[in-house]
Amino acid sequence: MFQSLPKIGVAIAFSFSLFFACQVATESEPLSSTSKVDLVYPFLDVANSRWFFFSSACRPFGMVNLSPDTEIDGAWGSGYRYKTDTIRGLSHIHAWQMAGLSVLPVHYIQGEEQDILLDYFSPFSHEQEEASPGRHKLQLDRYDIQVELTSTTRVGFHRYKYAEADQRGVVFNLGGKMGPSTLTDGRLEKASDRLLLGSVTNMPTRRRPRDLTVYFAIQLDHNVQEITEGENGKFLVKLDQESDELLMKAAISYTSIENAQLNLEQELPGWNFEQIQEESKQEWNGLLSRIDVEGATEEDRRRFYTDLWHALQGRRIISDVNGAYPDNTADTFRIGQLPLDAAGQPKFNHYNSDSFWGAQWTLNTLWGLVYPDIYEEFVNSLLVYYQDGGFIPRGPSGGNYTHVMTGASSTPFIVSAYQKGIQGFDLEMAYEGMKKNHMPGGTMGRAGYEHKTTLGGGLQYYIDQGYVPYPIPEGSFGYHQDGPSLTMEYAYQDWTLAQMAKSLGRTADAQYFLERAKHYANTYDPDSGWMRPKEVDGKWQDPFDPYTINTGFNESNSAQSTWFVPHDLVGLAELMGGKEKAIDKLQAQFEKAKEINYTAGDRHERENHPEYSRIPINYGNQPSIQTAFIFHHLGRPDLSQYWSREITKKVYSGLHPETGYKGDEDQGLMGALAVLLKVGLFQMTGGTEADPSYQLGSPIFDKITIQLHPDYSEGKTVSIEMTGNGPDAPYIQTASWNGTLLPDYNLMHSQLTAGGELKLVMGEAAPN
């Protein structure tokens, strides 16, 4: 059943189980026009794009993420922005805190080379543009040049069709601001008539504290006449006028020019543009086809596969084909080497990644069930950082720690993998690294982007006093020093680590972290009924407003964050006076949030706007995206079904450049959440308990079939079939698994991976 990639595909793909990834397409059987990949709408929400958000001509998690840029200044509001009508370059790196190798084909007038280097941008129109996973096509109106882009994992592939005009060339932009980075020390040299070699350095950012150099090798099918150098890292490559069409291959590496050339030679030895474009499409289709949906509307299905595509986006490979990778975890840069298998191939890839903050409700569940091979690679990559630098990161960039966001967000990510039987990594090392992160001096104690100290997170206060004070008396050391949020986050993450400790037989550790996991209650104020900032002397913050954003609550307000107790919702309800009072309180918050469609506006920055910041439930950012399923744990699964369906309709439906994820789709987190809501599976604890539990939601499709990975599951498929489903029928009347009723609407991971059929009878009213 599981067919392999074409030969060239094997050379460029990950060490995932490729026979599984490409089960639906072979070299001799091109994809049909109704393939899953054809349903993806890449332009979703790109009017609100940020540097790493938009993707087109790239492979899954590709080192190269080749796409046009219409804005190039800043991490936010940059990259491909749909409403900007000017192409400023075609760049190969759109990653967390990284950029580089921007090019653009041009016409120029002999003797005016410096003029074109000062002004080479071109307008374009969407009417002459096409994009889908693995490809991008557009027209540069200024030059009448047609641009087509595709790629392998580490090599960008360009095809330019020049019009009859003056001299033809390609501008290389290797200097100045590029997304989140400032590029410097750009170098480009002609190694032979058709080979260019060079490098450019990303200067440090507030988040990535060390330089990162990008090395590249460029091969063309035209001869290069000469290279003209301009100011600030701009170069004009002047071409012989051999034909109107130019093919150009651009390989990158973060370790050396030699490895860039090796990436080029091994991944893209030929010149067949259509073949590489088709193979990229096949690779994407293999991953997207692990879930098949039927029913609902065509727009619903297109949005679903766009969400699924986003869940496999953003986080980028940084290792070469030979396993070399950049290690920036110490004061001195070094080239690391991944372990090799018996055939001399890397056992896994190394990754650049934004934070796993919020992954407990998104990637943990989706990847753990549908993409366990990908999941295992990421865990192994995190452990390489631990071996190199002594910490498991929560968001590495360029082989360096960024300490993005807060806590030890990698802990539930790794624990969830372990509890789901994804254990192809060093378990003792993983536990050792996580425990180190949870103790003083570890990652947990660092505030956002706190590189040189470990005071900003207030971990010692949390251990000694049972809560993180707000403000922290020592002062400001980083971002997000929000005492109540940190207290709740640490408590949940401690609980997840305790679950793994129990599974490994470390009883004393388990008891220690379970006791710490109770600390969330110390920041609950019974008089106000909310989690509330507490000063170091134990006094509650006064005055206090539960709807004021970012005053003790990380990218949220108290109303949103009070519910961040995924490991002990019954205990939280008891603090509130019982389950009924907790249900009524949360129900009122949802009714209020409904008035502005459950999000803080159409863009991430709107969260600070007075009109939106006071929203009590926000599905446009991670802190409260679990709240719809809290009802389930308090005995009202019908309300979870109703509100999760409402969220799906109002927040995660439709196909438009100006809407989609409210501008904050953090490298797959919101895409994955949308997928889970639409298939009706959720995990409140992030799947971190032994044999993790899934809560049933309200699927929007008539039938969903999930292909299980044969290396991690005994069964072949999970089938979810709905009877009586429709836009106005969100409530489960009955649920059965392989013929056995599920009165509590829960399924265990072991049940799903054994394979089977979930049947749901849906209705317009909640059952009595």
What do these coordinates show?
This protein is α+β, with helices and mostly antiparallel strands. It has two domains: 283 residues, Beta-galactosidase, Chain A, domain 5, CATH 2.70.98.10; 428 residues, Glycosyl hydrolase family fold (Up-down Bundle). The strands form nine sheets. It has a nine-stranded antiparallel beta sheet. The protein has a seven-stranded antiparallel beta sheet with strand order 1-2-4-5-11-17-16. β1 and β2 form a beta hairpin. α7 crosses α8 and α9 packs parallel to α12. The longest helix is centred in the middle third of the chain and has 21 residues. 59% of the residues are buried.
- Low-confidence parts, pLDDT < 50 over ≥5 residues? 1-32
Please provide the count of β strands: 35
**CATH fold label of the largest domain:** Glycosyl hydrolase family fold
Based on secondary structure, the structural category is alpha+beta
| Fourth CATH level, the homologous superfamily of the largest domain | alpha-1,2-mannosidases domains
User: Can you tell me the CATH class of the largest domain?
Assistant: Mainly Alpha
Number of domains: 2
Largest sheet: 9 strands, antiparallel
Distance between the termini: 44 Å
- Strand share of the residues? 15-25%
The helix content is 25-40%
Strand order of the largest sheet: 7-8-9-10-18-15-14-13-12
Which of globular, elongated, flat, extended, rod-shaped describes the shape? globular
The CATH architecture of the largest domain: Up-down Bundle
* Rg over CA atoms: 26 Å
Number of helices: 21
Question: What is the average of the pLDDT values?
Answer: 94
